[in-house]
Design a protein that fits this description.
The chain is an alpha+beta fold. It is built from 16 helices and 29 strands. Bound molecules: glycyl-adenosine-5'-phosphate (GAP).
Length: about 550
């Protein structure tokens, strides 16, 4: 049996999911997941998790590290098919056979992608006064990539299966023991390759300069660092954020958006004076996540569900900034509806870290293909600024307490938009056995379409009123008009693409000047006056009011 418990830490309330487990004659209670600081949200997440806990075959405790497919209702290939069928994502250039590692976002995918990026920007840039944003160019002076070490050290090892000829890449530390993902045979080492795409700048071949499509957005932050700090008058500690495209000529792009050749990143370089403690540690007390440090991995132990604050105090996570940023990112995901049980944080072993990093943690997600990196948190120290200072011969130091210093980036939260897109789709994808169709329970803030408006009666008077409502709501949110098919069919079409609210213009609407709103997740309905519709939808999207309190309850036959 699973139940919610509340703890008070430093005067604040935190909610957790506990589970009773029988061991012989004794019943023990075990913490299964962190549910957040808000009871309403905690109840929702608990329901989501309980659904999984009730399916013993599909869910193992998330502390079991094995990299096997586990809890998902859907495989990654099925998700790709669903996305294509519904208009979220298409293989790029598919009418000519497609191109591996490249994807086009459709009319719903572009909305979901933009909503993810806007939510990320609001949380990391707008709602903080210590972070500003930039938008750097994709192609830049190639000297940047020489200085950053990407030309000489951004290397991967290409391997081919000796038996089935499957091509992939492996990390240096994996080379000795790696077996083919497809057939389990040994790999043949095909040597190192650099995944940066090259391009010629200038139309005349002999006079052109070779440059690169950026493999990460981060370097544009480092190379503009001095300008940004001065112009935005930033005082240490501060961060610079960026969302943008990155390109990597992956040897074997696969698993849908998980490993693409063209993808987007959302990155923050957070600069601090060397050895400055994180002043925000109180904020992360009580936030529990599965932690899997290098020692646990080497000893073949399971990850542990720990309070991130305690993990830092016990030196499992060595720097406070790492614990802080992992907590903030985990909170961002779960506040938008991601299921906390599908997250853990894993430390890179010393032989898998990137050339610029002295300690890296990943936020991992339990994808249908197993636990995989969702977001990286590298300690880049002063590596990048030092390199750019040396190579450019420009002074990149800034004033701090009367001294000139090069700040450090102790923790760089770096997240792929595509992987984030997968997380929100996977955690909201449900097959409802009663409705007998897919219900995409996306957080309304992320839903591509916020409301669908249906005239129930096929007469000009009703259709006209519906169109007027669409035109009014469209000024604020993405809403659609839909008059084709039965009302049940229209509901299920919208459930499948995650539309949280369906509005009907029925026989009473013209006279009463009101409409019905149906809630996607519960199928319950309320009546709301047309004049209050916009503000009601806004409050519902922002989860400022409960659905049942937003209008007068309606009895219905069609769910
Ligand atoms: N600036 C640091 C950096 O780029 P990374 O671990 O190489 O670090 C950061 O990449 C994030 O970018 C990853 O955690 C992942 O979410 C995303 N990412 C990296 N390569 C990707 C690929 N080929 N396809 C999709 N997303 C990718």
């Amino acid at each position: 049996m699973a139940f919610i418990t509340k703890k008070k830490i430093s005067g604040k309330e935190y909610y957790y999911l506990q589970k009773s487990i029988r061991e012989g004659n004794k019943v023990k209670s075990k913490m299964v997941a962190y549910l957040g600081k808000d009871l309403k949200e905690a109840e929702k997440k608990a329901e989501q998790i309980k659904n999984q806990l009730d399916k013993p075959k599909e869910i193992k405790p998330a502390s079991k590290q094995k990299s096997k497919p586990e809890h998902k209702e859907i495989t990654i290939e099925e998700l790709a098919m669903f996305c294509k069928r519904k208009g979220f994502v298409y293989p790029s250039g598919e009418i000519y056979g497609g191109l591996a590692g490249f994807w086009d976002f459709g009319h719903l995918g572009v909305e979901l992608n933009n909503n993810i990026k806007n939510q990320w920007w609001n949380y990391h840039v707008r709602q903080r006064n210590d972070i500003v944003g930039i938008d750097g160019s994709i192609i830049t002076n190639p000297k940047i990539w020489e200085a950053s070490g990407h030309v000489s050290s951004f290397m991967e090892i290409a391997v081919t299966c000796k038996k089935c000829k499957y091509k992939t890449k492996v990390d240096k530390h994996e080379l000795k023991d790696a077996k083919c993902d497809k057939c389990g045979s040994d790999y043949e080492n095909k040597g190192e390759f650099n995944p940066m795409f090259t391009t010629d700048i200038g139309p005349i071949k002999e006079e052109s300069v070779e440059s690169y499509l950026r493999p990460e957005t981060a370097q544009l932050i480092f190379s503009n660092f001095k300008y940004i700090q001065e112009n935005a008058r930033l005082q240490l500690p501060f961060g610079i954020a960026q969302i943008g495209k990155a390109f990597r000529n992956e040897l074997s792009p696969r698993e849908f958006l998980f490993r693409a050749r063209e993808f987007e990143q959302m990155e923050i370089e957070y600069f601090i004076p060397p050895k400055t403690p994180c002043p925000y540690m109180e904020e992360i007390k009580g936030i529990l996540i599965l932690i899997y440090d290098e020692k646990m991995q080497l000893a073949d132990k399971d990850p542990k569900l720990l309070d991130l604050y305690d993990a830092w105090k016990k030196k499992i996570i060595k720097t406070d900034w790492h614990a802080y940023w992992i907590a903030k990112e985990y909170e961002w995901f779960t506040s938008l509806g991601a299921n906390p049980i599908n997250f853990r944080t894993r430390q890179h072993t010393s032989d898998e870290r990137s050339h610029y990093s002295s300690d890296t943690w990943d936020l991992e997600y339990n994808f249908p293909m197993g636990w995989r990196e969702l977001q990286g948190f590298a300690n880049r120290s002063d590596f990048d600024l030092k390199q750019h200072q040396e190579h450019s011969k420009k002074d990149l130091t800034i004033d701090y307490e009367g001294k000139k210093i090069l700040p450090h980036v102790v923790c760089e939260p770096s997240l792929g938009v595509g992987r984030t897109f997968l997380v929100f789709l996977l955690d909201s994808y449900f097959h409802d056995p009663i409705r007998n169709n897919i219900v995409l329970k996306l957080n309304p803030k992320l839903s591509p379409i916020k409301a669908a408006i249906f005239p129930i009666i096929k007469k000009p008077e009703y259709e006209q009123l519906a169109k007027e409502i669409v035109n009014d709501l469209n000024k604020e949110f993405n809403v659609v008009y839909d008059k084709s098919g039965s009302i049940g069919r229209r509901y299920s079409r919208n459930d499948e693409i995650g539309t949280p609210f369906c509005i009907t213009i029925d026989d009473k609407s013209p006279k009463q000047k009101d409409v019905t709103i149906r809630d996607r997740d519960t199928t319950t309905q309320i009546r709301v006056k047309i004049k209050d519709l916009k503000s009601t939808i806004q409050k519902l999207i922002n989860q400022e009011i409960k659905f049942k309190d937003a209008g007068k309850a309606v009895k219905t036959r069609v769910k």
